[in-house]
Specification:
Strand content: 25-35%
Order of helices and strands: HHEEEEEHHEEEEEEEEEE
Largest sheet: 4 strands, antiparallel
CATH class: Alpha Beta
CATH architecture: Alpha-Beta Complex
Structural class: alpha+beta
Number of helices: 4
Number of domains: 1
CATH superfamily: Creatinase/methionine aminopeptidase superfamily
Length: about 250
C-alpha cells in the first residue's frame, strides 16, 4: 500500500533531509586521500546524533554501520573499513536519517582527490540521470516515465542501469511502497499522486548492469569489475512539481 503524506509529515521529512544534506556538505571536506571509511562512519554518526537525529541504517536488518561506503566497483551497501582511500578512487556514501519519527535518504558520489576523465564522466552522467528522473516525478505521470528517462540517458552514454536495487517509498519506515525502478517504459507503472514521497537513486555502471554479493551478505559489486556510481534524493510529489527534501544547494 502506498502511504500518502500530509503537509506536516512532508515538513518533518524535510527536516530530516536537511540533516542528511548538511552531512553530505561536510563529507565534501572529509573525503580526502588517506582517510578511512571507518573514520567517515564515525564522523557522520557523531554529527547526526549531535543534531538530535538517529542514523537509521545502523542496526537495520543487522547492518552494522551508519553509512554505506561503496568504492569503485562496489554498487551499494559497502561496509566501512580501515583501509585508507586512495587518490583517484570513486566512492558513494549512502545514509538514512530519522528525525522526529520520519526519515530521509540520500546517496552521493565523491571523487577522492584528482580523478580520471572516466570517473568524472560517470559521475556527471549519473547525476544527470538522477535529475532527469526527478523531472518526470510529476502528479499524474507514471513511475515508468521516471525509469525510462534515467535508462535512456545512461544508455545513450554507453552505460548500463543496475536492475537489482531500486528506489522506494519512505516515511516513518525506511522502505515503503512503491518500488521505483530506474529503467522501463513510459506510461507504465503506478501513477504518481500528490503527497507520495519517494527515493530516486540510479546506480549506473560503466560495464554490465549485473551484480554479485560479497561474503558479508550486503555489499554488491559489478560482476565484471567495472565502475559503479550512484546519486540519490528523497523527493515529495506535489501539485507544484517534485520537491527535493535532501537538496544540498
Amino acid at each position: 500500500m502506498i502511504i500518502i503524506k500530509s503537509r506536516d509529515e512532508i515538513e518533518k521529512m524535510r527536516r530530516a533531509g536537511e540533516i542528511v544534506a548538511e552531512t553530505h556538505r561536510r563529507l565534501r571536506e572529509w573525503i580526502v586521500p588517506g582517510v578511512t571509511t571507518l573514520e567517515l562512519d564515525r564522523l557522520v554518526e557523531e554529527f547526526q546524533r549531535s543534531q538530535g537525529a538517529i542514523p537509521a541504517q545502523k542496526g537495520y536488518q543487522g547492518f552494522p554501520y551508519t553509512i554505506c561506503a561503496s568504492v569503485d566497483d562496489e554498487i551499494c551497501h559497502g561496509f566501512p573499513s580501515d583501509k585508507p582511500l586512495e587518490e583517484g578512487q570513486l566512492i558513494t556514501i549512502d545514509m538514512v536519517v530519522e528525525f522526529d519519527g520520519y526519515m530521509a535518504d540520500s546517496a552521493w558520489a565523491y571523487g577522492v582527490g584528482q580523478v580520471s576523465e572516466e570517473v568524472e564522466k560517470l559521475m556527471k552522467v549519473t547525476k544527470e540521470c538522477l535529475y532527469l528522473g526527478i523531472e518526470q516525478a510529476q502528479v499524474d505521470k507514471r513511475l515508468g516515465d521516471v525509469g525510462h528517462a534515467i535508462q535512456t540517458h545512461a544508455e545513450n552514454h554507453g552505460y548500463q542501469v543496475v536492475r537489482d536495487f531500486v528506489g522506494h517509498g519512505i516515511g516513518k519506515e525506511m522502505h515503503e511502497e512503491p518500488k521505483v525502478l530506474h529503467y522501463g517504459s513510459p506510461n507504465r507503472g503506478a501513477r504518481l499522486q500528490n503527497g507520495m514521497v519517494l527515493t530516486i537513486e540510479p546506480m549506473i555502471n560503466t560495464g554490465r548492469w549485473n551484480s554479485r554479493l560479497d561474503s558479508n551478505g550486503w555489499t554488491a559489486r559489478t560482476v565484471d569489475g567495472s565502475l559503479s556510481c550512484q546519486y540519490e534524493h528523497t523527493i515529495a510529489i506535489t501539485k507544484n512539481g517534485p520537491l527535493i527534501l535532501t537538496e544540498q544547494d
